[in-house]
Amino acid sequence: MQQINRSGATALVQSMNPSMDHDAAEAFDEMAATLKLLGDRTRLTMLALMREGELCVCDIADALETSQPNASQHLRKLKAARLVREARKGQWIYYSLALEEKPYVAMLLERLPSLADQLHSAGGGCCPDGG
Fold this sequence. Notes:
Largest sheet: 3 strands, antiparallel
Number of helices: 7
Order of helices and strands: HHHEHHEEHH
Number of strands: 3
Helix content: 55-70%
Low-confidence stretches: none
Structural class: mainly alpha
Strand content: 5-15%
């Protein structure tokens, strides 16, 4: 299947519904891209973990039982989509939810079960604060 770039997708949405204005078509494109990103169980779980608070990559990797490089790749995609923000504290980088522009994602996450127990059972990560 051929990939369509964002402007091409907007044009495609508009061609399917000529009465839709350009801004609405872009909003549909952005929401579709975000939901596609969340279709990955690992990324969705990461966001659910961050509902419990700010976390470092080692806390996330431990909770998901995956490697830190794998967790970092997923976090990079979530950050690029403006779903998470990072904050540097000394040599550590902490990640937290950034859903102010995407309230529909916050509503989805509210429907997921809490993963607080999974975080606590994962043990302390590599960070001095434990996240």
